[in-house]
Amino acid sequence: MDFGKVADHLIPSVNFTLPADGTQTGKTLEGSTPFKKPEFYIGCAKWGRKEWLNMIYPLKTKEANFLDEYVKHFNSIELNAVFYSIPNADLIKKWKAKAEENAIGSFVFCPKFSRTISHIKRLKDAEVPTDLYLSSISEFGKFLGPCFLQLGDNFSPNSFEVLQNYLTHLPQDLEVFVELRHESWFADAVLRKKLFEMLGRLKKGAVITDATGRRDCVHMELTIPQIFIRFVGNGEKHKESDFARIDEWTAKIKTWLDSGLEKVYFFLHQHDEKDTPILANYTIQQFNKHLGAKVPEVKFITKETELF
């Protein structure tokens, strides 16, 4: 994931402090009490990483069986694989079967909307590909988590009405989180307020993307009592900084849980994905220790686990 990537030598100068809660967060959680059994889903963005052989996948695992192994370690995945083309139902059924047969407990796929819808059609006249997408992902059944709609860097507030219209016509029971990247969504206070109020009214979530070079995307606006965080780490060289960032997120999420947050989706990315399972496991450990999550830890094959 290259979004928000900065030159390595600049990383130590970045202020990673999480901003204060946005205005919409206060409205969303106002009057709520702690949810009795909040749910926690922690995972990665893809399972097809050869670097994870002999780390979390047995050395001789074939690529076709990587998902079988992935679901033994994580309870969710931010499914980017369906972004590049609208999946057919048979493929979804195949992935579902792998989760049914191998997952250590509950497991959810959180599929990204296909780029035909978000980047090519740009949400206009997208009824046909949207219907195809929804029909396919429905095959996940109980394994379907929220979908996330990522708009391109050039999808600006000029398209506010297009976005609102598209979200309005999605099935009301479809859980959706929206990720926006154009800087104007966050820089203009009036537009920002209008955006998050609209998402709250439609009961759609707002993705928070914690990337080094785009601190404006850490908007801290909750439009529903759930969070979907895309955390982008900076790799082995900066692991202490990344761990400290996870610690701060843990503390922040604790305040939201105390105010009624119901679900946490936290997905780990890195520009070099080799060490992502290590960062993910640290996240699981901290959430279990401080937030009362009961997410099974990653089972490492190598001595990586001795880092902890």
UniProtKB/TrEMBL annotation:
<dbReference type="Pfam" id="PF01904">
    <property type="entry name" value="DUF72"/>
</dbReference>
<protein>
    <submittedName>
        <fullName>DUF72 domain-containing protein</fullName>
    </submittedName>
</protein>
<dbReference type="InterPro" id="IPR036520">
    <property type="entry name" value="UPF0759_sf"/>
</dbReference>
<dbReference type="InterPro" id="IPR002763">
    <property type="entry name" value="DUF72"/>
</dbReference>
